Amino acid sequence: MSAVPRLGAIVLDCPDPAELAGFYARLLDLPEPKVDDDGDWADLNGPGGVRVSFQRAESYRPPEWPGQDVPQQLHLDLDVTDLEAAHERALSLGAKLLDDAPRTFRVYADPAGHPFCLCAC
């Protein structure tokens, strides 16, 4: 077991995960995405284990690029085999715990405030 995480997924918030994942599947010529039964999550698997995931956000507002009135945002899911060790390591490196509800993942902010999750795998 290691406290060093590996990149699990890049997750994009959106109003319709299946639709957006399908767009990227077509754009990138990848297999059709795997969509959860409730439609709130979709995974798009690329070469080399790269995964882009799409999460339903009911109040999603698209970024107003290049302006910053609604800034661009995303979060990273980082897979770990030892959640407790990875938790301690992340905190020691400057992460701030945002949500530690008992489940298989925890939500943090990096030193600049961007959210990321450590996910037990």
Q: What brief labels describe this structure?
A:
VOC domain-containing protein; 8-stranded mixed beta sheet; globular; 121 residues; 17% helix; alpha+beta; 2,3-Dihydroxybiphenyl 1,2-Dioxygenase, domain 1
Structure report:
The structure is a single chain. It is built from two helices and eight strands. By secondary structure, the chain is of the alpha+beta class. A hairpin with a 5-residue loop joins strand 6 (96-99) and strand 7. It has a single domain, classed as 2,3-Dihydroxybiphenyl 1,2-Dioxygenase, domain 1 (Roll), CATH 3.10.180. The radius of gyration is 15 Å and the shape is globular. It has an eight-stranded mixed β-sheet with strand order 2-3-4-1-5-8-7-6, covered by helices on one side. The protein has helices at 17-27, 83-92; strands at residues 6-14, 34-35, 41-45, 51-56, 75-80, 96-99, 105-109, 115-120.
Fold topology:
Layout: E1 6-14, H1 17-27, E2 34-35, E3 41-45, E4 51-56, E5 75-80, H2 83-92, E6 96-99, E7 105-109, E8 115-120
Parallel strand pairs: 1-4, 5-8
Antiparallel strand pairs: 1-5, 2-3, 3-4, 6-7, 7-8
Mass-distribution shape: globular
Radius of gyration: 15 Å
Q: Residue share in helices?
A: 10-25%
Report the top-level CATH class: Alpha Beta
What's the architecture, going by CATH? Roll
CATH fold-level assignment: 2,3-Dihydroxybiphenyl 1,2-Dioxygenase, domain 1
Report the mean per-residue pLDDT as an integer: 91
- Pairing-aware structural class of the strands and helices? alpha+beta
Total number of helical segments?
2
Query: Which series of helices and strands comes N to C?
Result: EHEEEEHEEE
Domain VOC: 6-121
Pfam families: Glyoxalase_6
Organism: Amycolatopsis thermophila
Protein name: VOC domain-containing protein
